[in-house]
User: Fold these one by one.
Assistant:
Number 1:
Amino acid sequence: MLINSYRHRLFAASLLIALLGTFSTAQAKRASQGSGSATTVVIDAGHGGYDRGGIPGQRVAEKDMTLDVAQRLKRVLAAGGYRVVMTRDSDVFVSLGGRVAIANSYPNALFVCIHFNSAKRMGAGGIETYFYSRESLPLASAIHYYVAGGAPSSNRGVRRRGYYVLRKTNIPAVLVECGFLTNPTEAAYAQTASYRQKLAEEIAAGVGGRNSVTSALTTTRVATGETIPLQPYIDQTKVAKSERHRSKRSHKKSARKKRSSKPAESKTKAASKDQEG
Ligand SMILES: [Zn+2]
């Protein structure tokens, strides 16, 4: 009886320990995910393989710079406890669709694309960061804040643009342009290992600060989603024209519908369109 009761108590105690253990493991897991935000970072080194990046005749290959910064970022993030996935980890070509597919296979991840800029004008320079979805803005703002703040280059701002890799990804996605390789000063920086390490550390700081830095940033240093216009990524000139055309003649909407049965009507419309210029 006494032995039985002791065994019961022992069982209860071990059960309690087991339960507490499960609880604390779950709690730690949740804490490492930071209140629902991701700890996996998919790093996308721009270009690669036959795709050098940049513009024709560019001396410093963009693909080499992006890969090196990406690999440095991988080490910094891994040291900081992040799980890191690379869309490429060597000089190979990966299609944009392939990059997006990798990113989208980690539903709680963050997607960071590393690029360097180029321009025909040698004087063009600076850091710019792109995002597309609203959920990506905090990450974009934070990364931009740190990279632009840590770089000697000018701040070209956070911009919204529908790049394929930003548009097709279902997770927060940011593309950072770490300076112009066609700018002699910025190219010289980019070719320095210590500077590429600095870039990696600043990007990592942005990843880490995505939830704390942004709220202040969006109201001060970086424009909010509302004030950043969507820069066109497809030729919308024709759409815009017909849109304007329609609004000007909304009263003739019924007439237009009959166009196919009345060729004379469309002729009149065409004539007046010409007059408009
Ligand atoms: Zn690029």
Number 2:
Amino acid sequence: MIKRIFLLLFFVLVISQFLRPDKNQGSYDSIATFEAAAEAPVEVKTILQSNCYDCHSNTTRYPWFMEVSPITHWMSYQIDEGKEHFNVSEWDSYTDKQKDHKLEEFIEMIEKKEMPLKPYTWIHGELSGQDAETLVNWAKVVRSGIGKTEETPQTKEGDSLPIKESDTTAIEEVTAEE
Ligand code: HEC
């Protein structure tokens, strides 16, 4: 009986090697956009690259063991989940309020040692205390600067800008001239 179960498991494992999930391999440009917008220094970029981007950007690195089932299926699921909560490749599309909130969670996740996600660190190693501090300090600086460097006001859906009376009269004047 036990022998049969093992045989079956082995068979499933072999078959699953052929059922490959889609890879998360977008261009690095979106990450570069985030890094520029958030003014990430080189050391911060390096730490994020080796600990976070695999699950929180559109670009995952795929060393050979990441191609092996069931690791590849587990990773694929975590990448989907991770990106849904926080995706640096979509940084530009977040409103200021969202950016601030993501960074607040970013700090919390690191301080509580919840990120990087557990089994991932078995292979990639834990975040060192010093690296954690570097990330948290940087995130605090980015948070304090949000909204201050933007020149154009955000006009994303859901952000209603108050319309001044002078604006509407100006529009009326223009249309009246035609
Ligand atoms: C192996 C994949 C993986 C890695 C690596 C990883 N994360 Fe995550 N992360 C997730 C998943 C999955 C979630 C969503 C579920 C959860 O909150 O546990 C998440 C959620 C988050 C969130 C949002 C939390 C919330 O409440 O919405 C932040 C912020 C975050 N991670 C930051 C980081 C940082 C910073 C790193 C690197 C130091 C990192 N993550 C590394 C998988 C990962």
Number 3:
Amino acid sequence: MALFRKLIQLSSTARQSSSSLSSSLKPKLSMTPSLVLAGSFWGFSTTSRQAGLGPTKSDEKPRVVVLGSGWAGCRFMKGIDTNLYDVVCVSPRNHMVFTPLLASTCVGTLEFRSVAEPIGRIQPAISSEPGSYFFLANCTALDPHNHVVHCQTVTDGADSLDPWDFKISYDKLVIAAGSQPLTFGIKGVTEHAVFLREVYHAQEIRRKLLLNLMLSDVPGVTEEEKRRLLHCVVVGGGPTGVEFSGELSDFIIKDVHQRYAHVKNYIHVTLIEANEILSSFDDRLRKYATKQLVKSGVRLVHGIVKDVQPEKIILNDGTNVPYGLLVWSTGVGPSGFVNNLELPKAPGGRIGVDEWLRVPTVQDVFSIGDCSGFLESTGRPTLPALAQVAERQGKYLASQLNKIGKAGGGHANAAKDNELGEPFVYKHLGSMATIGSFKALVDLRQSKEGKGLSMAGFVSWFIWRSAYLTRVLSWRNRFYVAINWATTFVFGRDISRI
Ligand SMILES: Cc1cc2nc3c(=O)[nH]c(=O)nc-3n(C[C@H](O)[C@H](O)[C@H](O)COP(=O)(O)OP(=O)(O)OC[C@H]3O[C@@H](n4cnc5c(N)ncnc54)[C@H](O)[C@@H]3O)c2cc1C
């Protein structure tokens, strides 16, 4: 124990001294809204809202700009050699979300911080190297012919600050801006439903769930209102919708029954799906999941949502479904940002890339993760919107750009085709989904028709947990996750509404 404490002290001292070193090395950022960055260190313009990072000189490190801090962008940043490149990440969030475990945070199985990985930990150079940065901003436009991206700051919560624009010149650009939830143009979804994609979504779900639980216990609430408040509706029976429904039913069985005993008979979960749940899994696993969900109290409704109103949804057959919490999880498609980019598109509207993940019509632009897809001319299929695709593309592209950088092709327009090496090849490792009650599905087949191991039950649940624990990026978060799981197992979920 003493040795352990000593080790922690040593590592925190080292961190403190490295952060004080980095703060002394790094030029100060101006807090004045009209200035984006201060100093002539890189030859910036510093006098207007259109300030930014100018082009790099030939004797400076080339600059790789990464749009997005998700699975693809972060895996890329982790692998890029910062001796060869300066890295500038532009994203509206300063962390990566470990999405496979996000559903668990909605009901307090895990804490929010356990699934959020700060970017500075993924790529420390971003906090310490003079030419590397993280900018809390959205990219708004791209000028590939001048190697420039236009960005706008995200100033949510800073009441006195309006967003302002700035520009960044890049030598290499990696577009990893992800996707957005599909709503199929159904009225009211954006206004009344909660999506489950970001940590703040999970926080909103948890707050709403606990608020409804407490309100329904207060005198004066009618029976009908109680039933509505405690009706959790999930739309979309893909892995995310099913996992979230499983987490909710676990929460109800184990925690609500014990701690909200007065209202335990009013709380229900309904999962609405237009086709069949978990359509990418094999028939046997699907049947198992259906049986298990029903057994744990989830009502499965086959239907299509026509309209979403503040307290009820209306299905195609006219059925009204009152709800207190509505979670929307019906798949993803290209974001408005991707739609507006004047770049070639792959089937489905994603940014079109060749076999080396380059956008072929422009120099030095690459795209990875959910926002990109192979161009039809490559003859390759569109890859699924999965973390395992995004992560492997990020890893592959980092090694490609490292090769190019080592060969002297890091600066804008300097790379040659013969430095590319092997094209990107994706091999599916299988799918997993937890369904609550210590049960999960594991499908290790390469495709739905392929041969291979597929299993369900407690052993699968154990494999699911072990696999994701090892995939969590940092030791810090791995430790948090393990401790959260143990605490939940022994003491139950955290149901405080802070
Ligand atoms: C709840 C949930 C559970 C999931 N579970 C699994 C699973 O178990 N297994 C699996 O393989 N996959 C899973 N997925 C899918 C997986 O998370 C995605 O495929 C993966 O996140 C895609 O990575 P990405 O980097 O392309 O996009 P994202 O991870 O979505 O990251 C996109 C980034 O781009 C940023 N961005 C957006 N617009 C801009 C802009 N204009 N400028 C700059 N930055 C921008 C975003 O803020 C974000 O940081 C799950 C997804 C969800 C939501």
Number 4:
Amino acid sequence: MESRVVVLITGCSNGGIGHELARAFAGRNCLVVATARSLTSMSDFQNDPRFFLQELDVLSEQSVTHVLTNVLDKFGAIDVLVNNAGVQCIGPLAEVPLSSIQHTFNTNVFGPIRLIQSVVPHMASRKKGKIVNVGSCSALAPGPWCGAYSASKAAVHSFSDSLRLELKPFGIDVITVVPGAVTSKIGDAAIVSYSQMPEWKLYKKFEEPIRARAHFSQGPKSTPAEEFAKRTVNAVLKEKPPTWFSIGHMSSLAAIMYHLPLFIRDIIGRKLMKC
Ligand SMILES: NC(=O)c1ccc[n+]([C@@H]2O[C@H](COP(=O)([O-])OP(=O)(O)OC[C@H]3O[C@@H](n4cnc5c(N)ncnc54)[C@H](OP(=O)(O)O)[C@@H]3O)[C@@H](O)[C@H]2O)c1
């Protein structure tokens, strides 16, 4: 009998993409290790035997080691790691506190690398595994007001390309998933951290478009997270998964922007973001 695929996902709080990915993997008969910083944010999964719920903070080495030990003790394997947890960082690069930029990179870049370094020895010993890194369309055509976030996601895209080649000899697939605009709590979370930013000096008059950038991906046409998750899971579970794919509202626009000459991209970016 085929053993069930064990999938570990970071950032599975209710209302976000991770939560829907957990549901979609479970719907495909996987055993899902749904992780989040707080178990209460996944309470709807609590009595469902398809889920093994664990508290995991991607910033903590201790937390990652503890969860991986628990999972390997319970299931003996991790087949798929999904690095989904992430934070936005809204504000002009010249004035965003360095500590906020560092927090963004710690969460979005060093968090996934911490998980990857912990799980690779196990996957390599079995000569199989899949590592899914969640990037962002905003890294394809970075505009103003979220430079730190876009740069962190560009780093995810870039390190995933290196990792894919480095892990090939060990039978491990690396998959970059690039969401467009997908419904989640990312805008609300961004506003909470934005409220802790200092008052802008040079950028006072741009306060309105800067603040509005927090919810840019959360419009009425945004792709429902459930739909995004189902399509992502279908791709990831293929025997030969795609190395890179983009799903979601505005993902085609972002792909076009990526290929446009910079002077045209700048005209569009300035118009869209009012600067
Ligand atoms: N939604 C979009 O349109 C969009 C577009 C492009 C890329 N993305 C990417 O998609 C991924 C999921 O985001 P989302 O849209 O679902 O946003 P979300 O609803 O805000 O979810 C983000 C998740 O990351 C978790 N997280 C944050 N810091 C963490 C940490 N230190 N350790 C563990 N978990 C942590 C959050 O946990 P808490 O609930 O505890 O804060 C939450 O579960 C992110 O990587 C994001 O950058 C989203």
